Amino acid sequence: MTAPVVEERAGARDAARGRGPVLGPVRAPRARRAVPLARWCAWAAAVAVPVTFLAVFFAWPVVALVGRGFVTDGALDLSGFAEVFAASRTWRLIGLTLGQAVVGTVLSVGLGIPGAYVLYRCTFRGQGAVRALVTVPFVLPTVVVGVAFRALLTESGPLGFLGLDGSFTAIVAALVFFNYSVVVRTVGGLWEHLDPRAEQAARALGASPARALWTVTLPALAPAIASAAAVVFLFCATAFGVVLVLGDQRYGTIETEIWMQTVQFLDLRTAAVLSVVQIVVVSSALWVAARARSRREHALNLSAATRSTHPLRLRPVRGSDLAATVVTALVVLVLLAWPLVNLLVRSFRT
């Protein structure tokens, strides 16, 4: 037996008897393994492909459009801002864009909260089919949504007697039709996992169902409601196809004006200025949505922490849920199903 091994075993024996620490042999540090060249190439390709795609198909067209609108004879010319914002038509377009976005967001949230409660907090037969039907409008192209409401509200349509074809009401109804599922799924996803003990405590202390809803449940759902409202506002402010089909030129928005100035009048400077305005609106909505989404994810994590000890059980629809059930049924049947069924039926007529 060699001397180093004998010394190592003696040191271990002394340490076991409480005489001192174990002194093992000194080992040289291991060298880091070199990353293979193939892995670096794979990571570089994974980063380069999406960056190249965004640069070619997004950044380049935007920069080219803005450059042609703000560059005159090789020099930067920002006088287009003063000319565009001096026109009353520009402010009317901005007002219509923000107005339809605000009204569409308020109605979508107001109608979506009862739907989130019925579809994600209660249980009933055919619930999965109703959830699927609610999701269908959101995956449709905006032009199809506009055509569906145009077929419903035209003079020969079932609701032609109302005279709403080409009106602001028709645009808002189509926007709510398109964004209703965003509110239902976003708010319902949090409501489904919300800890019921706070609401039960409020009811035990004598609060009515309405008061418990306003003082306990809705504040807990505030992150999801804010996130859904920001996303819906973004979609309503950029609903190009819906406004183009239903609004014509009377209710144009920033997007439709950009398209008209670019395609019909070839006024790239006006289109570039309006594009900057649209970028500001979209960026603001995205910032609010990101902040609200982070709060909603934090609330979902807190709900998941209490779900294991206090699991939430869905309950059947009861008499106290009559108002929410009626509102949800009317929205699903009249606002969502009727335009789709009418469009399908009219497509087979000659």
Structure description:
With 350 residues, the chain is mainly α. The protein has one domain: MetI-like fold, CATH 1.10.3720. Helices cover 73% and strands 2% of the residues. The protein is built from 14 helices and four strands. It has helices spanning 3-16, 37-70, 79-86, 88-120, 127-139, 142-153, 168-191, 197-204, 209-220, 222-237, 240-246, 254-263, 268-307, 322-347; strands at residues 71-72, 75-76, 122-123, 315-316. The longest helix is centred in the last third of the chain and has 40 residues, at 268-307. The chain is globular. It starts with a helix and ends with a helix. The model has no long low-confidence stretch (mean pLDDT 80).
**Percent range of helical residues:** over 70%
Q: By helix and strand content, what is the structural category?
A: mainly alpha
User: Beta-strand percentage?
Assistant: under 5%
CATH architecture: Orthogonal Bundle
Widest sheet: strand ordering:
1-2
CATH class, anyone? Answer: Mainly Alpha
Poorly predicted tracts of residues: none
User: Secondary-structure element order, as H and E?
Assistant: HHEEHHEHHHHHHHHHEH
Number of helices: 14
- Shape estimate: globular
By CATH's scheme, which homologous superfamily applies?
A: MetI-like
CATH topology: MetI-like fold
End-to-end distance, in Å?
Answer: 102 Å
Number of domains: 1
Mean of the pLDDT scores?
80
